[in-house]
Design brief:
Layout (H helix, E strand, L loop, with lengths): L5 H5 L4 E6 L5 H9 L4 E6 L3 H6 L6 H6 L2 E2 L1 H4 L6 E7 H4 L3 H6 L6 E4 L2 H14 L13 H13 L5 E4 H6 L1 H12 L31 H5 L22 H15 L11
Parallel strand pairs: 1-4, 1-5, 2-4, 5-6
Antiparallel strand pairs: 2-3
């Protein structure tokens, strides 16, 4: 994949990057950042089309240039910064290219994989699609490699557990904003619903169950989901074993010294 040109970097005063496995409240996390007056543009998962469509000419950076103008939803902005939110398995080994355009420390989100994987299966169920999907699409193999990439290349990063973010949004986001060099205001934790916004780059018809809840929400919602048991996941296809492995990785990542710890 060709690297974005220097002109892409010059188009924005800052570029922020959030990366996570699917179903980690990353869109809700991004919606808090939407409310910051200095962030005007939002590129939602620009690598999604490349991953699912496999075009002859990758269009991730073209998609990033077609970012949503957030002033249409949040009102006037004082800056022109860009927020890129991406899913770990979609960007994959192109993480180096993505992080190369970041002007601030990247943020990685995690959430107990028993919840992220069961949630992905539930969305597929509600969409009337088969529940099975490649194990790489849980996003946990990718985040392990991407965190390792940052460590090996001495790239600083911020790690946020979605449970902490949803249970203690003000404490977590105040610390995140400090790391990103942004001014925090607790009013940014709430917003007006915008259910008609299209976020997906490849699901263009019908109801998109992946984003229905967050686009209809009015603010950060507390974590109330029951934690599934490992035995709730089918053993066929290696999913149960994969969930066990991902849960162990999740526990290790929670010990990362770069993880934001709620205070107060």
């Amino acid at each position: 994949m060709p690297h974005p040109s220097t002109s892409f970097l010059a188009e924005h005063s800052d570029i922020y990057v959030v990366v996570s496995p699917p179903r980690t409240a990353s869109t809700a996390f991004a919606r808090v950042l939407w409310n910051n007056p200095s962030i005007r543009y939002y590129a939602h998962e620009p690598f999604e089309y490349d991953y699912f469509k496999v075009p002859e000419v990758p269009r991730a950076w073209e998609s990033a240039r077609e970012a949503i103008d957030l002033s249409d939803f949040t009102g006037a902005k004082s800056g022109n910064s860009l927020l890129i939110k991406e899913i770990t398995f979609q960007v994959g080994r192109s993480i180096g290219d993505l992080l190369a355009v970041t002007t601030r420390v990247p943020v990685f989100l995690i959430r107990d994989p028993r919840l992220t994987i069961s949630s992905r299966r539930d969305v597929k169920r509600r969409s009337g699609r088969p529940l099975e999907f490649p194990l790489e699409e849980t996003g946990w193999q990718a985040i392990e490699l991407q965190i390792a990439f940052c460590r090996e290349n001495r790239i600083d990063y911020v790690l946020v557990d979605a449970h902490d973010f949803r249970a203690h949004p003000e404490s977590v986001m105040r610390q995140v904003y400090a790391r990103l060099g942004l001014n925090f205001d607790a009013d940014q934790l709430s917003w007006e619903p915008c259910p008609r916004v299209t976020l997906s780059n490849h699901r263009t018809t019908g109801v998109d169950h992946f984003f229905t809840r967050v686009l209809s929400s009015k603010g950060v919602e507390p974590p109330t989901e029951a934690l599934p048991a490992i035995d709730d996941f089918p053993a066929d296809g290696g999913l149960r074993e994969h969930v066990e492995w991902a849960a162990a990785l999740y526990r290790r990542l929670r010990q990362d010294p770069r993880r934001i710890i709620p205070v107060g």
